[in-house]
Design brief:
- This protein is α/β, with parallel strands linked by helices and about 350 residues long.
- The protein has 2 domains: about 30-155 and about 280-345, 3-Layer(aba) Sandwich (D-Maltodextrin-Binding Protein, domain 2), CATH 3.40.190; about 155-270, 3-Layer(aba) Sandwich (D-Maltodextrin-Binding Protein, domain 2), CATH 3.40.190.10.
- The protein has 10 helices and 13 strands.
- Helix 1 links the parallel strand 3 and strand 4.
- The chain is globular, with a radius of gyration of 20 Å.
Amino acid sequence: MSASGPPPPHLPEPPDTSHTLPASLTRRTVLRALGGTLVAAAVGTAVYGSVSSAAAGGDLHASLTLIAPAAAGGGWDTVARELQQAQKANGLVNNVQVVNMPGAGGTIALGNLSTLAGQANNLMVGGTGLLAATLQYGSATTLGDVTNLAVLFEEYDVIVVPADSPHRTLEELVDAWKDDPAALPWTGGGSFDELVVTDLAIAAGIDPVETTYISSDGGGEAIQALLNGTAAAAAGGYPDNIDQIESGRLRALALVAKEPVGGIDIPTAREQGFDITLSNWRSLSAPPGLTAEETADLEGLIDETLATDEWRAAVERYHWSPRVLSGEALEGFLAAEESRIAALYEEMGQ
């Protein structure tokens, strides 16, 4: 999905990593920072976008930039592109582009969003993983530095083992884990999945520090670690694992959700005596410094987008569970989630 309109001016020499994103980027380049290194990153399929002040200050329904704080193809990118599709198909925004800005668990994009003060025509996708990354990396910019507009939905993790695993229930898996925590290696596709494993360890009376956790670069790599025997169990997003579960290559032991979810025939961990309910929620934030009218306009656009047939179809296709929060409810939710995740990192010794 390409950006339209004339290209912005030529990109100046990249600043060092302590600086923020320039107001304008070429269509051929966005900044990516990971581990302190700036590199070029593709946006979509051989198409490049820009975060630019050109979108600011005008009619919100004329032009909008959706920022995905990760590479193309991941969960945040998927949300941004489904929002884009719904807005374009229904004429909610005339010109809407997606810009991918990966790095440091989303905190690079968050830091840049915080520099676009007053530019209401920018929205960034975020969620549990981004909040976790601000704590994990000690980010100078937090969600408190931008305008948080809404939580859109929740996505649940599933605990899986290879089909030939001797563990047929969550209780059997946990019993083996308790016997020798370091000898039963876990994996997952990201920092959120590690938090779920930590939460399960605590619920089972296992010291998370003693657990062997193999970090994988995405859900696909985590599945391969299971299938090739590198890991014995994994926590991962249900949408990432459903094909392998249905094909019989993986066995699902538990869904990490507060209650059973319609259409998902997997018992929850809670039903099996392990009270773990951390969800991978997705959110939308805007730059700081917006007027009350601009904030209300953005909230209205989000409501319109979520009401479209295209968005509803995406929710069903990706097995998302709608949970829309805004206003004071959102503020309270984010504060509670920050405390909860910070406590899990303490348990992990980080």
